[in-house]
């Protein structure tokens, strides 16, 4: 008998999965245009004090060793507000380590998202529990799905640029039905 994704998650004691069917595993809690739109006030509303951050197309363009404009200041502001940050990337150490060092952040590379291994390792490094963190990323089938499987809220940010490879163009087309319909507004209540 074929076991459903939700049944496997329940078997792993993830009772805090999104409600509303398996399609909800591909839906983020909220969507923003950029990682720099995340504020300590928003995280307080979500009840979290730590972020698990994707790199490519979230903090910088794909394979760029330099953070996007405003990201270094955003990281400094979040840290000053007491928010713990950790990079979680599917990329390899030569890509992730120098980027993390530049931002002064801890990291997990080869995170294997959407599997939960990388998120689990990052939360341990941060000394926090799952209930204290949210994940941030630009991809539905890795970042959003992985966060939901791990049982943490996901903040979807729209990609900084569209990738050129055939694989990524195909993947982005497959994400369309699950893309958020609206951007979160700071003065609105969370659903």
Salient structural properties:
six-stranded parallel beta sheet, alpha/beta, 191 residues, Rossmann fold
Model description:
This is HAD phosphatase, family IIIA. Pfam families: Hydrolase (PF00702). GO terms for molecular function: phosphatidylglycerophosphatase activity. InterPro entries: HAD-like_sf, HAD-SF_hydro_IIIA, HAD_sf, PGPP1/Gep4. The protein is of the alpha/beta class. The chain has one domain: HAD superfamily/HAD-like (Rossmann fold, 3-Layer(aba) Sandwich), CATH 3.40.50. The protein contains seven helices and six strands; from the N terminus they run αβαβαβαβαβαβα. A six-stranded parallel β-sheet has the order 1-6-5-2-3-4, sandwiched between helices.
The CATH C-level name is Alpha Beta
Side-by-side strand order of the widest sheet? 1-6-5-2-3-4
The tally of beta strands, per DSSP, is: 6
Uncertain regions: pLDDT < 50 for 5+ in a row? 1-15
Average pLDDT taken over every residue: 86
Counting H and I runs of at least 4 residues, what is the number of helices?
7
* Dominant shape: globular
Could you state the CATH homologous superfamily? Answer: HAD superfamily/HAD-like
Which structural class should the secondary elements be placed in?
Answer: alpha/beta
Our Rg estimate from Cα atoms comes to: 16 Å
> What is the name of the CATH architecture?
3-Layer(aba) Sandwich
Estimate the helix proportion, in percent: 25-40%
Report the end-to-end length measured between terminal Cα atoms.
35 Å
């Amino acid at each position: 008998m074929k076991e459903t994704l939700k049944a496997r998650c329940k078997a792993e004691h993830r009772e805090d999965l999104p409600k509303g069917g398996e399609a909800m595993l591909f839906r983020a809690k909220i969507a923003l245009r950029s990682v720099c739109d995340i504020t300590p006030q928003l995280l307080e509303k979500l009840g979290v004090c730590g972020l698990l951050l994707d790199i490519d197309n979230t903090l910088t363009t794909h394979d760029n060793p330099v953070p996007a404009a405003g990201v270094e200041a955003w990281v400094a502001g979040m840290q000053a507000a007491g928010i713990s940050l950790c990079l979680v990337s599917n990329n390899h150490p030569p890509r992730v380590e120098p980027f993390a060092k530049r931002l002064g952040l801890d990291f997990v590379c080869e995170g294997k998202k959407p599997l939960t291994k990388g998120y689990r390792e990052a939360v341990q490094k941060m000394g926090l529990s799952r209930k204290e963190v949210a994940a941030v990323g630009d991809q539905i089938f890795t970042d959003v799905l992985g966060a939901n499987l791990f049982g943490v809220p996901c903040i979807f940010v729209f990609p900084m640029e569209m990738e050129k490879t055939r694989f990524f163009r195909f993947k982005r087309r497959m994400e369309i039905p699950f893309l958020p319909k609206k951007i979160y507004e700071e003065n609105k209540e969370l659903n």
